Amino acid sequence: MKYFLFVFFLFSLSISAQNTTTLPEGSSSPNATLSDISWMEGNWSGEAFGGITEETWGPPQGGSMMFSFKLVSEGKVSFYELGHIREVNNTLIYELKHFHGDLKGWEEKDEVQQFKLVKVDGNRVYFEGFTFEKVSGNEINIYAQIGNEDGSSEEVTFNFKK
Asked: In three state form, how does the secondary structure of the chain look?
């Protein structure tokens, strides 16, 4: 019985701790520009998945902000992500590709993961399944819905510091 209550308590916490969202069906992304997320620019580091994370965001140029991500675990690169946030039709779209440590891609050659903008709200920018939060000038959080092998998903928090 104690185990059941503990699991229920953890489940309740996870429901109330949601920081990610999706675009309501039939809705379109709101107007936004790269200036709404330009505070992401810089070199960021943190810890996640049992390793060290690095994320670097370039300045807004040419209608996009490019980024790279690296996870180092047990002294080896576990995976990379490369991508950008682009201005398209007066809104933003977050796009990325994953690569193993040897740079072999996860997605097919022409496949890109795309996440539509849901809303811009103060110090947070919400994309479908991802939220970027400015904590301070030297700290950000990225909340991501990560899929599990069993078809479920969980929200993971990446805390980065400059």
From this structure: CHHHHHHHHHHHHHHHCCCCECCCCCCCCCCCCHHHCHHHCEEEEEEECCEEEEEEECCCECCEEEEEEEEEECCEEEEEEEEEEEEECCEEEEEEEEEECCCCECCCCCCCEEEEEEEEECCEEEEECEEEEEEECCEEEEEEEEECCCCCEEEEEEEEEC
Q: Report the alpha-carbon distance of residue 45 to residue 140 in Å, rounded.
A: 10
**2-161 belongs to CATH 2.60.120:** no
pLDDT in tens, 116-159: 999 999 999 999 999 999 999 999 999 999 888 888 889 999 99
